[in-house]
Amino acid sequence: MADPRGFITTPRETPQRRPVDVRIQDWREVYEPQSFEHLQKQAGRCMDCGIPFCHSGCPLGNLIPEWNDLIWRGDTQEAINRLHATNNFPEFTGRLCPAPCETACVVGINRDAVTIKQVELRTIEEAFSTGNVKPLIPDRLTGKTVAVIGSGPAGLAAAQQLTRAGHTVAVYERAAKIGGLLRYGIPEFKMEKHILDRRLEQMEKEGTRFRPGIDVGGELTGADLRRKYDAIVVAIGATKWRDLDIPGRDLNGVYQAMEFLPWGNKQALGEIDNPPINVAGKNVVILGGGDTGADCLGTSIRQGAASITQLEIMPRPSDERPASQPWPTYPMIYRVSSAHEETDNRLFAVSTEEFLGDGSGNLRAIRIVETKFVNGKFESVAGSQQEIPADFVFLAMGFTGPEQTPLLDQLEVNIDDRGNIVRDANFAANEDGVFIAGDAGRGQSLIVWAIAEGRSVASAVDRYLTGDTQLPSPIEPTTRQLMV
User: Is Glycoprotein among the key words of this record (predicted)?
Assistant: First the structure.
C-alpha cells in the first residue's frame, strides 16, 4: 500500500482549472499543471482496503492500488508498466472517462474517494514526457491480416493489440483523419488533438496501417474486405443519433450535436476561420444534459454565443448519492463540468413541445413545458408552457445504435431489436471471421468500455487466427454471457 495514514491525513484535491475568464478565450485544456509531489500525496491516499472494489468499478480491470503505490514511491517506470498492462490509452481515459472506479473506491464509503483518474492521467503524461512510451514492435509476423473498420477507441485498442500479436492490421476510417469521435466529437478544451496524434504515431511505428478517407461499404465493399483479410473487426460505434420529431424540426437552426461539434474542433485547430455552424452573437438552446450537451455548451461559449440554455427532461439529481444507488455503484448525482463552471443555465424537468419559426423558415424560439414523472412516463404540467428565444438548437439526446450502412448488408451481419449488431460471447458475428467491438454491438456506452471491448475482441480474433492467444481479455466470455 501507499501512505498508511494518507487517506486520513491528506484531503482529496484535484488540479485547479484555469480561471474561467481566461480559458474561455482559447480552446486549450482547462486544467493548470500539477506538481509531481502533489500527485504523490494524492496517490498516497490509496489505502490497504483488502478488496479493491475500484477493480470491479473499472471495466478494464486497472491495477489501481498497484500504480497508486508506485507513484507514491516515485517509481514512475514501473507505474506506467502496470497502467499499460490493462489500458492501451490512459491519456484518453484520464481525460474523458467519468471514473466509475472512483465511485467504487473503498475510501469513498465515508470520505472523499482517491483521485484515481488524475493519478492515471499524470502517470501517462509523466511517461510521455520522459520518453517512457515506446513502440512495442512484434518479434515476428504471423502472416495473418486483419481489417479494423472504425478508428474510435474500440477500433484503435483492437488494432494495437492485434499488431503487437504479430498480425498485419489496417484501420479504415471514412473521415479525413483517424480518431473517430475522439477527433471529431471531443472538444479541444477536453482533449487537445496532439494527444491523439502522438499515440497514433506510436501505433504506426509498431506497424499498424491507417487508411482514412475511405468509405467502407462504398468504394471498398464487404466482399473486397473478405478477399483481402483473414478477419474483420467492425468497430463503427453507435453514431445513429436520437432525433426529436416535433413541429418545426425542419426549421433552419435545428441541428444534431454531432453536426455542430466537428466544426467547433476544426475552428479550434485553425483549420477554418468561420465554421458553417457558428453561434457567435446568437441565442443557443441545448437539448440534453449529458456529456455531449456539456461539449456543445463549452463550444458555444468559445464561439461567443449571446445566451445559452441547456434543457434536461429528468428532474435535477441530488447532490448526495441516492439510497437506491448505494456504494459501490455509479450514482446519478448532480455534477458540474468545466463548461458548467463557465455558464450554467440548466433547466431540469422540462420537455420541448415545438420549434417556433420566424415565418421565413428560420428558428426564432422553442416552446417548452414542465414535466413530472408519473407511473413510468412523463406528463406535462398544465399551464407551465413558456417560450425561450433560440437562433440555434442542438440535439444532444444520445445515440440509438450503429448506422445501418451498406457494409452491414454486405457482411450479412444480424441486427438485434435495439439496432445493435448481434455477436456471441466471443464477440463474433453470425458470419465467420467477422467480429464486433464497442458501441456497435454494445450500444452507446463509455470510452473505458470501448477500450475494454477492443482489447477483448483482439484476444478473440487472435485465437480465431492462430488457435491460441496470449492477449489479455478484460471481458471474458463467461462474464459477457452473464452481462448479456
Answer: no
Percent of the chain residues past pLDDT 70, beyond the cut: 98
Instruction: Give the count of beta carbons closer than 10 Å to the beta carbon of residue 432.
Output: 9
C-alpha cell at 114: 482517491
Domains in the chain with CATH codes: 6-129 (1.10.1060.10), 145-239+400-483 (3.50.50.60), 254-395 (3.50.50.60)
Task: Name the nearest CA neighbour of 444 among 259, 286, 274, 241.
Answer: 241
**Cβ within 8 Å of residue 448, ≥6 positions away:** 58, 59, 60, 93, 97, 100
Q: Which residues on neighbouring strands pair with residue 346, listed in sequence order?
A: 310
Q: What angle do CA 195, 155, 124 make, to 5 degrees?
A: 30
In sequence order, the 6+-apart residues with CB closer than 8 A to the CB of 194 are: none
pLDDT over 50 (residue 484): no
CA dist 117 → 81, 242, 406 (Å) = 17, 30, 39
The dihedral over CA atoms of 148, 152, 158, 160, expressed in degrees to the nearest 10, equals 100
This prediction's pTM: 0.95
